[in-house]
Specification:
The structure is a single chain. A hairpin with a 5-residue loop joins strand 1 (10-11) and strand 2. A 6-stranded parallel β-sheet has the order 3-10-7-6-4-5. A two-stranded antiparallel sheet has the order 1-2. Strands 8-9 form a two-stranded antiparallel ribbon. Helix 4 (85-92) packs across helix 5, helix 9 (205-219) runs antiparallel to helix 11 (230-250) and helix 13 runs antiparallel to helix 18 (366-374). The radius of gyration is 21 Å and the shape is globular. By secondary structure, the chain is α/β, with parallel strands linked by helices. The chain contains 20 helices and 10 strands. The protein binds zinc ion (2 copies). One zinc ion binds at residues 133-134, 181, 261, 281, 285. One zinc ion (ZN) binds next to helix 13.
Length: 421
């Protein structure tokens, strides 16, 4: 896969020109050395890292930037860094005279740099330290503001530099999380096709195919990933970056995020509200993919109903408040705007039953997904034990209310409502 060729853009058969604003992607041994050339025009650089990510690649980054003025914000590694107001102001306070931000890290560091870069209209680059998620090449900054998770539209990095030796030394849980985030694309792509069929949403076969190709490449890597094989880690990172580029091409995270991500957001948001533990993003996504595969299997076993479940909004509002506290009102407003509560889709489901059944059947079985996860020693029982049956059922029921995106969770709700089948 020639990523830099992809960055030039594609005139697509879907009648759109797909583009991505990232200028350089280097995923190779010693990728960081390219900083000296691509930072030529910048003189004062703010390096943002935490203690762990600085240890992983900070010195290499500084060495590659010889002759530049380098300021640093290095967050203490005592606690997990949260991308909140305090972290944002620590970065903003250091920006005086700075003409580019370089984030050295993975998820949180790049969300933080992305967010500040957008707020302050300053360019940024990212030196990746773990192949843990697909956000490197996406423009969404997942922040925790006022104690709540909010995803902001922000800027793309000018460059992504991923040194395969650095990535291969990342904590194994982060590497597994990256694999899990890719496995989740089975479900995301299936939801996209489903939405195109049911709601007429835009769909691009090219983006679908390129994303699907990344899952297939990644699946062969499981063994190499566990052994931290540099070539396997390189292909995993390429898959994560390419999926990010596909989001830019689609103009949204649609190809990469569907019901499985909605479930993972449910676990994260309720974890923040209740102050309880949740798995890291890619691992929650991986386990949630099994759950969405089970939902598709359940729907396929039933005859399509002639009536659509319609919620009692007062009752629903009380239930959502119990689960989401202050976030509940926002969910209801969002769904009213999108029209999901009032939509009666029974007729369209019946009219398109054959096509819908075909799409849902394309998803690998829940058993097959479990096997894919066990290849990297992710055990579904850990998920069941951690969250418990009741919370998982709540997720299936209420994760859909967090987003304006149509997915199989809405089919499940239309067919079965609040009843557990
Ligand atoms: Zn297209
Ligand atoms: Zn993800």
């Amino acid at each position: 896969m020639d990523i830099n060729k992809l960055l030039a853009g594609v005139d697509c058969e879907c009648n759109r020109r797909h583009t991505c604003d990232i200028k350089y992607v280097f995923i190779e041994q010693d990728a960081i050395k390219h900083l000296s050339t691509i930072c030529g025009e910048y003189s004062t650089i703010l390096l943002v890292a935490d203690e762990n990510t600085y240890l992983a690649a900070g010195q290499k980054t500084v060495d590659a930037l010889q002759g530049k003025i380098i300021k640093k914000v290095i967050f203490s590694g005592e606690k997990i860094l949260v991308p909140n107001e305090a972290a944002v102001s620590a970065v903003i306070d250091a920006l005086d005279g700075v003409d580019i931000i370089i984030g050295v890290g993975s998820g949180v560091i790049q969300d933080l740099c992305k967010y500040v870069s957008f707020q302050r209209k300053l360019p940024y680059m990212i030196v990746a330290t773990a192949p843990s998620m697909d956000g490197y090449a996406s423009n969404g900054a997942a922040m925790i503001m006022n104690g709540m998770k909010v995803t902001y539209i922000a800027t793309l990095p000018i460059a992504i530099l991923a040194d395969t030796e650095v990535l291969a030394r990342a904590p194994i849980e982060m590497i597994k999380a990256g694999y899990g985030d890719i496995i989740g694309k089975f479900s995301a792509l299936n939801d996209w096709k489903l939405s195109c069929c049911v709601t007429g949403e835009y769909f691009c076969q090219y983006i679908y195919d390129v994303t699907k190709e990344q899952i297939d490449r990644t699946l062969n890597l499981a063994d190499g990933i566990l052994k931290r094989n540099a070539e396997s880690i390189k292909i995993l990172m390429e898959a994560l970056v390419v999926v990010g580029i596909m989001m830019s091409f689609a103009g949204s995270s649609r190809p990469a995020s569907g019901s499985e991500h909605h479930l993972s957001h449910f676990f994260e948001i309720t974890g923040i509200i209740d102050n309880t533990d949740y798995f890291s993003h890619g691992i929650d996504v991986a386990y949630s993919t099994v759950i969405t595969a089970e939902i598709r299997e359940k729907i396929l076993k039933h005859s399509f109903p002639t009536n659509n479940y319609q919620p009692d909004l007062t009752e629903l509002s009380q239930q959502l408040k119990k689960v989401y506290n202050s976030v509940a009102d926002g969910c209801i407003e969002l769904q009213k705007k999108v029209g999901n509560y009032s939509a009666n889709r029974a007729a369209i489901y019946l009219e398109k039953e054959v096509a819908i059944r075909e799409i849902l059947s394309e998803m690998p079985s829940s058993q097959r997904i479990k096997e894919m996860l066990s290849l990297v020693e992710l055990d579904m029982d850990q998920f069941y034990m951690h969250y418990g049956e009741e919370k998982i059922q709540e997720a299936i029921l209420y994760a859909k209310d967090l987003k304006d995106r149509y997915s199989v969770l809405w089919v499940n709700y239309s067919f079965f409502g609040n009843t557990k089948v």
